[in-house]
Amino acid sequence: MTLLKESYLCHLLALLLATYEDSGLHRLAVRGGAWCSRQIDESAILQPLCREGAVARSWPDSGVCRLLSWLVNLPGGLLRKFYLALEGTFEGSFFARLAFRLGDETAVAEGWLILLLWIIPYERWNNAYTLMAFLLLLLLLLVGAMGRGDRHLDVERVGFYPTLMFGAVVLGVVFSLTRNASVRFLIYHVSAALCVLVTVSALRSAEELKRLAAGASGCVALSSLYAIYQRLSGLEVNESYVDMDLNADMPSRVLSFFDNPNTFAEVLLLLLPLTLALLLCSKHLLSRLAAAVALVLGTAALGMTYCRSAWIGMACVMVVLIFLWKPKLMPVFFALCLLAIPFLPASIWNRILTIFDSSDSSTNSRFPLFKAGLEVITRRPLSGAGLGTAAVQRYVKLLNFYHARTPFVHAHNIYLQVWAEMGILGFVGFVGSLLWGIKRAAHTVRHCADGAARTITCAACAALCGAMVCGLADYLWNYPRVMCIFWFVFAVALGGAKLCAESA
What we know:
By secondary structure, the chain is mainly alpha-helical. It has 25 helices and no strands.
């Protein structure tokens, strides 16, 4: 580390930063950022887009929110009464005190659990693991609430639109054309809902938020290390993943512990921003070094996936993250991006160029999928075909909506697929959840002091923006494990915004 600090490169970077801080460009960037902030705060056009909507604002005081909050907290309330009735017995028991102590550390347990869950190889993975893990975390949270009367499941913070989304999930089973298959997908969504509820409710401090980011960083490091091992060990090129006529020089696409390189890229897209945030807010040298290693490994692995939609999504992530965290660094970021172009490997540069090539078979194969998804929406706009890819597949096959050589798996667009499965209510709930969560996080970080909670909230918000962009060309929830990771990042954004608001 001393050698790094004394190196020519380090001195050069310090000189460049010092020059930039004293430059007219920096002063211009600061003034431009202040002007943009004033426009957002004062503009009659931008204010309605940035502020919380009337429905979201009224949610905490609504009868539905109070009823749901009472229902989900009823078991915890009964356990609390049971504790008070036998307080002496519980306080005299070593195991009871240990259980209460563990319940207070639910967020810490979640950090370890998400690391263990998300590095299980695909061939050994079972989606029941996620459900069991978050049921265990829920039990821990309830035990903690039993010993402390100030803990509860925070339905209010989860918000109206995610609740609407889950209601649409249930209706998607009720109106499904393949109800038995849809029940299986309902379990996946229940796991995701538990993830959001437990994460938002368990977070009490910035240190706990850093623990969750550390769990995500561990997943990035281990999965990326295995992906690099795959590359070095000579992973065979799978021609079903790429058009070899346009990418003849491209090596194999790594997939790590997951079944598909696109899936692995989506995991990195969601978790790499949290890794970067952990690097930026860590105070100890060892944790910074570990986060830096994870970030380098993850960035290299993301490049080796050759997933174009994830690359575009990551570009969006970086723009949003820097804009929210330190807007004055935007000119430096764009300058570094331009300087990095000549150093890109030829295979990555050629892969980027295929985005604009109309003859690329991977790009062209998406249009029949989009068309089939739109046909389902046109025929069943209100209810959809039913929850899960199986119901949409059956409906597409039944009415002969798809005409292409490759089989129809999903619509390859998260917005089309959600609408095709859950109808208009699910689409509104999904898009509303993302926009509300992003706006809430962005608004909070703009009006709070610097700190770990602010940095990680910026990163989670940026990851959601990147996922929304990536979702235009892919269905991120095709693998339920990625769905849970998606909602975990959403919960981190909400939980971080809660902590930022409380510290403001």
